[in-house]
Sequence to fold (410 residues):
Amino acid sequence: MRISIKSFAFTAIAALAAPAILLGTSRASDHADTPEIASNPGTDLTDVYVFPSATNKNNVVLSMSLHPLIAAGEGKKTAFDPNVLYQFKIDSTGDGIEDAVIQARFNGSDPAKQTISISKPVAPTMRGVLNEQLAMLPMSGKINTNFSPGSNMRVFAGGREDAFFFDLERFFEIFPDRATPLTGVPVPDPNTPKKTSWRPAGEAKDFLSNGQYNTLSIVVEVPRNLLLTRRGGPVSKTGIVGVWCTTSVPTGDVWRQMDRLARPAINEVFATVANDQHKQNDEIGPADDKFYLKPDIEDFMLNVAGRSSAITNVVTAVTVPDMLKVDLSKMDKAAYLGVETGGFTGGKFGGRALADDVVDLSLYIIFGTAISDLGLAPADGNQIPSLTSDNVDASGKHFLSSFPYLGEPR
Fold:
């Protein structure tokens, strides 16, 4: 049986019958994944960020984080997987298929000696979930250092403080059927919800900051115009692009996609793990989200969150295909969902800034009145105010004011 989250929150019954919300089993944003991904942390993407450079208005910064839950003191002692192809993918035509890619490979496995080779944004020779490796820029750099490989780019790859923030412990107390010992958080009785709301402000706990966890990150600063590269035709005149990241492993002469990530927690909110839907979404491209992710979103919003068809339709229109939308023609600050909401969330550039509270915004959309407040659909009266904010912010993070922007590893 499936019960609605509204009923769950108000009566605290049958947690096992309620599917995952916001995050999956041990996931915060996307900090662990399917068994295939979890067994190969070098392929496990956790977060994607796109924001304007703080020092050059003509440049933007793209950042992917991966390899979650690296312990304190181990950030700079952890190497990237040399058998993985890491890619930023950019769609400049709105069809959910990449028109430009930035590819990165790592050489060696000793973190003290490992180097990164990277490409400038170029049109791919194979698009979709099977790719060919492209020519890398002639200069490579050591990990855990900044370097400039050419094409007016700046690159950093190495250990960083995990930039994501969320009260994961409280989440497990509200939804104990999602708890797992992998995170180190005590696992409650899955049949007995302890709480029906988030901790109040001042009492909420940022699990990743308190645990001093790190990730590996690849950060690239690049001129805006290079992201509009496309083979065989013109790019969007609006300057709006979609960005996502992938990790791929070798299969014969090509590279096969293992993981994909764009907006935080989309796959974790809506896709089920038990029937391999989460795995399937990891391994497809955004162009196919209308066939797989969209039905998951509709089912969750209607039958689990109990929202109206009108609100559900808006959520699917915003989230499918799953790409971080960025308006390269705008010179204001980054703000998650800024393109989709016309700047309502803080800036029309869109993308995602490091300090964006994507958890609260996601909760506000799913359980709150965000859609009706924007005038995109009538209010349905089914909001759950006690679930619209986890009351955790970025105050526990140590972001930098200049490149590579993510904080030093703990």
Notes: Confidence is low (pLDDT under 50) at residues 1-28. The longest strand covers residues 59-70. The first helix runs from residue 5 to 11. The chain has one domain: 5-394.
